[in-house]
Amino acid sequence: MGAFYNDTADMYNAILSISAVFFIPYVIMLFFVGMPIFFLELSLGQYTRAGPLTCWEMAPLFKGICLKIFKLYVLFHHMYGHT
Description:
Layout: H1 2-48, H2 63-81
């Protein structure tokens, strides 16, 4: 029983140390990249009174973004939306 406990504790400690390595860059990127883009999309949608796909058509340079966002929505809906 002691060997099983030691192996389980070692595995638990390894998982904790590995997850901390990935969690720190995730939080940094979330605050410096993810949240500004999220608020940009929200404010553009409120300003133009349009959805997330059509609000980017106000600037010709960003017309391709609406298609990429649509593809990501479809991909994530397909991956995580169906239970």
